[in-house]
Amino acid sequence: MPGYELMGREELAEIQDIFDHGAVLFRHGFDGLRQGRYKVKDFEAAMAAKLGTGHGLAVTSGTAALRVALAALGVGEGDEVITQAFTFVATVEAIIESRATPVCAEVDATLNLDPADLARRITPRTKAVIAVHMLGTPARLREIQAVCDQHGVALIEDTAWGLGGALDGRPLGTWGVAGTLSFDFAKTLTTGEGGMLVTNDAGVWARAAAWHDHGHENNPALPRWEDSRASSGFNFRMGELAGAVGLAQLRKLDAIVTAQRAHRDALWNAIHDLPGIQPRAVPDGAYETADALVFFVPDAAAARRCRAALLARGLATKILPEATSWHFAGAWTHMPELVRAHGGNLATAFPQSARWLGRAVSMPVGVTLAADAPARARLALTEALTEVRVDDVAPQLQAA
Ligand SMILES: Cc1ncc(COP(=O)(O)O)c(C=O)c1O
Description:
Layout (H helix, E strand, L loop, with lengths): L8 H11 L11 H4 L4 H13 L3 E5 L2 H11 L7 E5 L4 H9 L3 E5 L9 H7 L4 E7 L8 H11 L2 E5 L7 E2 L2 E2 L6 E5 L12 E5 L2 H10 L28 H11 L2 H19 L6 E2 L6 E2 L4 E5 L3 H13 L11 H4 L8 H6 L9 H8 L1 E5 L8 H14 L3 H10 L1
Parallel strand pairs: 2-3, 2-4, 4-5, 5-8
Antiparallel strand pairs: 1-9, 6-7, 6-11, 8-9, 10-12, 12-13
Helix pairs in contact: 1-9, 3-9, 4-5, 4-8, 10-15, 11-15
The structure holds pyridoxal-5'-phosphate.
């Protein structure tokens, strides 16, 4: 979650560059005035180069990136799109906005999509699958891609948490036909609000680019207001100020992920041998962004004790165990489309996911880590898992 931790002069310099050269805040046109400054286009090109993918399309949010990806794939009424029961509501919202039916599959010990359950939920109406790399750990993409290929279904990667991660050396977001990124204020890179679609498929990119811009094809032979169009669309264009911030942030990506991984390791080394702690499963070949340190404890009561003990020691948890209301489909009774798709009862629809999530604890990891944080984490979790308050026994330990 560190994009905002490193917000500074570099971002300001990119914005200043716009104001020093015509102050054009729109991604298109005004070519004479802007003196060669195209921050959104540069950000797209830089991200595509960084990920080794053909194209990037910057949009206004990660949610918009998902909606645009579904539009570019022609998803609509009568189609089903499968995602996972542990994700942010945005993934399902984008499917509902596409007028498709949202279906959630179970997560496994990776806390990402369970390929076996995915295979069970595919029907002749399934048009796309959205796999999510929750909290920076790669989904089982090899197996998920194989299921999608077997059924001729498109794979989209919701890479809101996964930017900077990889599986088998291949960046997350570049396995599926499209990957979507989020640059909201809690993500690895931030533009305040923002997102991007990345793809190797020129056709998907062209349809997405038009759809996010009211259907404009940006035909170079025509002035914009006489532009050609082949589909309806919407306005999800990123503005130049966000593009400028994104360009500066992207240069920090490697340093951010390197720092997060070191801090995640320092925290894990301090707690891994405590009784009852079990690591989150990670696919072989994964390179995690280490956006969070996630582990399992024996039961839900222990998970709640861990959260309370961490807070008492000035530390925090991130989503798990406390915030599953926004991140677990079993709680989304406010989404009638989802409720209908799961037989009218979400509460019992995802027992496997509920079991894993109920005893999971997630600690935020950032670019900065207080020197004593690993020791405090150990004290807090020792108390929570042994139900003994360390301060009470510390004098005896010292005396011994
Ligand atoms: C898994 C996931 N997908 C999509 C989004 C949506 O991103 P944004 O907030 O940029 O719309 C989020 C945001 O937290 C997310 O966690």
